[in-house]
Design goal:
globular, 7 strands, alpha/beta
Amino acid sequence: MELGIAGRTAIVCAASKGFGRGCAMALAREGVNLVIAARGGEALEATAAEIRAATGVQVTTVQADVTTEEGRAALLAACPNPDILVTNAGGPPPGDFASFTLDDWRRAVEANMLTPIALIQATVRGMVERGFGRIVNITSASVRAPIASLELSNGARAGLTGAVSALARKVASHNVTINNLLPGPFDTDRIKNNWTKAAATSGRSLEEVGRESIKHIPAKRLGRPEEFGAACAFLCSGHAGFITAQNILLDGGAYPGTM
């Protein structure tokens, strides 16, 4: 399907690996020029080179921590008027609720709620004025069903979801959409790190923890970042203008509800 976004420009955050990389590659394959950001310069440049070689689009890199004001300023200086914004940041660490400090909560909210809000505030008005915009926030399946030990993520990402819901409806008449993609278990560094911590805590092997986790996924496998990227690209397409203010779950059927 021709998505109708060739020649557009997208900001993709945390794009050197995982979900961000999957989204960046999928958009590039549709002819979208990219401004991609990540903290690690080596992985970022490697991803940019691979995307350029595979698609031929223009890829600008910004090595920055977008959870800081300085990082966001650098990113927006490189691309002040994107047509597409994909917000993304690494999730907070798992742990026990009783052991989380207020600073832990502040960091989680800064990274996974306030950073996307700040980027949206900086770009959405221009999208409205130009009559086109697509904003996709990468959140978590925990927004739909809170995950034990991930309370920091549960709270911050649910806060973002509530914060942008009304805005999505305000800007919809200008062909600007805001949606949230909620990943469940995907083959990324984060899930492997969580499995490693679970194995260390429980005394089980990493392989055993992985098998036990996958057993509860109806698809009987982890998702692939490229699958996630394809979903993101469609939400950013010219065909998706009637989809907004939605929380779209990608979890291989793991969520047990009907709604």
